[in-house]
Amino acid sequence: MNFDYSEMQQMLLDSAERLMKERGQVEKWRERRHIESGLDADGWAQFAELGWLMLPIPEDAGGLDGTMEDVALLNIALGKGLATEPYINSVVLSAYILDQAGGAHREALLGGIASGEARVALAHAEIGDRYDIDTPRATTAVHDGNGYKIDGAKSVIFDAPSATHFIVSADLADAGTSLFVVEAGAAGLALESYPLVDGTRAADLRFGGLVVDADALLASGAQATDLLFAATDRAAIAAVAQGVGSMEACLDLCSAYMKERKQFGQPIGNFQSLQHMIVDMLVATHQSRSALYGALAALDGEAQARIRAISAAKVVMGEASQLVMRHGVQIHGGYGVTDEYAISHHYRRLLSLEKAYGDIEYHVARLAAAHIA
Amino acid sequence: MDFRYTPEDEAFRQEVRAGLRAILPDDIRERQRLTTTMNSDTHDQRVWFSLLDDKGWSVPAWPTEYGGPGWSAIQKYIFEDEMYLASAPEFQWTGTHMVGPVIYHFGDDAQKERFLPAIRRGDHIWCQGFSEPGSGSDLASLRTHAKLEGNKYVVNGQKIWTSTAYEADWGFFLVKTDLTVKPQAGISFLLIDMKSPGITVRRIPQINDEEHLCEVFLDNVEVPAENLVGTPGKGWTSAKFLLEHERTSSAFIFWNKRELRRARMIADDIVHDGRPLSQSPAFAGRLARLEADLAALEWSVLRVLANESHGFDASVASSILKLRGSEMQQATTEIQVDLLATRGLRAYVPGRDQPAPSLPDWPEYVPGRTAIATIMRAATLYGGTKQVQKNILAKLAFGL
Ligand SMILES: Cc1cc2nc3c(=O)[nH]c(=O)nc-3n(C[C@H](O)[C@H](O)[C@H](O)COP(=O)(O)OP(=O)(O)OC[C@H]3O[C@@H](n4cnc5c(N)ncnc54)[C@H](O)[C@@H]3O)c2cc1C
């Protein structure tokens, strides 16, 4: 075991903390979130320039071949700085599927992700889902000439408005759940976009006779669902990391506020009830980082152990985030419920991170099932 | 002891149920049923309270001489329970439950005649100007100054967190009329017409996309001296009376019952793995716990209404209601967000109009759930923060 950062990781962290400090200021963030697609193009270009978008991409596809530990460290910094760019969905989740599935699109799309030109969003969730991965899809694909024709709908697809491509799951006759690459502008695809509470964007998607070429098919059946499980687990780890970063930022914000705000002629930090609250926040945040390390250690190991460690991390982080964001607002008094203080933005981001890639309920159930199995 | 409702109570319940149903306009009921905001729509409150007043039901808590219906404590309780069951707009608390009682308790005859009928009929929306940027929990340190010049006060200062100020007709303010004395002394209770020259209201963007909270800037605002309620310099007494006289409303018992009903309705409606979420082990357990807590809270409310005597200072029991009630407001709404999973993340700007659903999995109950759960973090802030409430309780109950 080695708990120290490598030289490369230290450089990554330094650059990330510098940029995030600047971009994470609440006034700047409040302006940025009005961008219609949810994506600040200049910011994304900076991410690309710093090499962040190529971090987990394999070298043969123009990437840095970074480890999941590297990715987690970067995401802690992104969480601290309230980054809402589609990093997890595109660079962590979709890139993993594209790499593992191989095929005609692999190099071009991975290269596009690495350079910042392509952003890929997973379009898997459907009406009635609760984080389902291997339940049959109502969206269908049928053979059509040399390709496939896709019909159906997808519900609450994160980061869809700024995506250039989607990985769409659909039920293919005889082959089961299958994954297809679909271009965002394709005929037969309609998006209904909306903002989420944390300022990111999502959309509901409708497919009406959308036609793709034969090489759009990435994977089918068990291979497809295995890929979805593995990729979503990586996304969950990255979400835990962002949550850790956001919670660590909450500790800084609250500690500063407790020293600065005065009531009854003294800093509110003198009041023991608030001291105990911020210490509870510290314990929960610390435990979340520990659970994250546990998940990283288990990522490439045996399947049941991996599931247990990743779900455990998502549960620990989810519950910690609720304590931290609620105490964080409470410590700020009325200022905590305004849009003008950073703590309320971390509140909304943490609300979203708890719900993304499996909420507490989902991961508790998965953890319980893994123990019974 | 006999804890059951009497046949007369039951008959009264049927009477108000039928009466409310007969007069509540459909559009107002629908807006309230699908509410997306923390407080009821003030336009609807104006209409609704004039309709209620026609029946003599708009101020159940007031003495009959000021227009109250003369009901017993249990009857008032039943009435309010039925108001929420009918999806009627909520009381405009600042008028009916705060400034109204202060006026009929401390005010002179002219003030009573001038203000009470308008509150009763919902003609005046009121806001409460107590808190200041530097004076929240430590309210007594407030600094807004009212200087007597002839027969008027000239007011200068700033208030914050003044809910509804942007659409209020009148505000009741705590101001310093004597700067030479220590905190709490020298504070007066002043009624100010919100259209007075020198008042500027800034709406504050909130965590839930509402802008209901306001800052109120007072710059040489002239207020007739006759608008001061009670004795000059004794406003702190009125403020304490106002915060303490409604001993059970801070439990928000009817509000909590409504939100738990809503949670159960949502849990029954969402089907996953072939069964409604209300039958999944996780949510069935959470709902059952909330129902148990809420049943206990309801009995705690009834005990206060019955003036039960116990070993503690009377305000101990009402502080318990405030603490537990505010926590329940958070818990009954947070479970709704969790039931919605990722759909609960969709942002809706709270207000009258909601966007049409894009897919069939956006039922009418989705908008507003997360916005309300989020702003409910404020339930443990306003009216005395949770920490301050606990400080008070430790002292009152145990002399610590
Ligand atoms: C949604 C909302 C609506 C409101 N509506 C109105 C309104 O209409 N009119 C109005 O006048 N006001 C209103 N308020 C203001 C409300 O009463 C204040 O927010 C409240 O009194 C707390 O003051 P503060 O916000 O300045 O917090 P602070 O007093 O600064 O408190 C900050 C933190 O310090 C803690 N703290 C403070 N003192 C102590 C202590 N002695 N011991 C332990 N902990 C302590 C608090 O619990 C809190 O966690 C509203 C507030 C909100 C959030």
TrEMBL record, chain A:
Protein name: Acyl-CoA dehydrogenase
UniProt keyword Hydrolase present: no
GO MF annotation terms: acyl-CoA dehydrogenase activity; flavin adenine dinucleotide binding
Family: Belongs to the acyl-CoA dehydrogenase family.
Every Acyl-CoA dehydrogenase/oxidase N-terminal domain range: 6-117
InterPro entries hit by this protein: Acyl-CoA_Oxase/DH_mid-dom, Acyl-CoA_Oxase/DH_mid-dom_sf, AcylCo_DH-like_C, AcylCo_DH/oxidase_C, AcylCoA_DH/ox_N, AcylCoA_DH/ox_N_sf, AcylCoA_DH/oxidase_NM_dom_sf
Domain Acyl-CoA dehydrogenase/oxidase C-terminal stretches: 235-370
UniProt domain Acyl-CoA oxidase/dehydrogenase middle: residue ranges: 121-204
Required co-factors: FAD
Keyword terms of this UniProt record: FAD, Flavoprotein, Oxidoreductase
Pfam families: Acyl-CoA_dh_1, Acyl-CoA_dh_M, Acyl-CoA_dh_N
Protein's organism: Sphingomonas montanisoli
CDD domains: ACAD
Automatic annotation (TrEMBL), chain B:
A molecular function (GO) term: flavin adenine dinucleotide binding
Any one annotated GO CC term: plasma membrane
Record-linked Gene3D superfamilies: Acyl-CoA dehydrogenase/oxidase, N-terminal domain, Butyryl-CoA Dehydrogenase, subunit A, domain 2, Butyryl-CoA Dehydrogenase, subunit A, domain 3
Residue ranges of domain Acyl-CoA oxidase/dehydrogenase middle in the record: 127-221
Acyl-CoA dehydrogenase/oxidase N-terminal domain span: 6-123
Domain Acyl-CoA dehydrogenase/oxidase C-terminal: from-to ranges: 233-395
Keywords of this entry: FAD, Flavoprotein, Oxidoreductase
Listed cofactors: FAD
Family listed: Belongs to the acyl-CoA dehydrogenase family.
Entry protein name: Acyl-CoA dehydrogenase
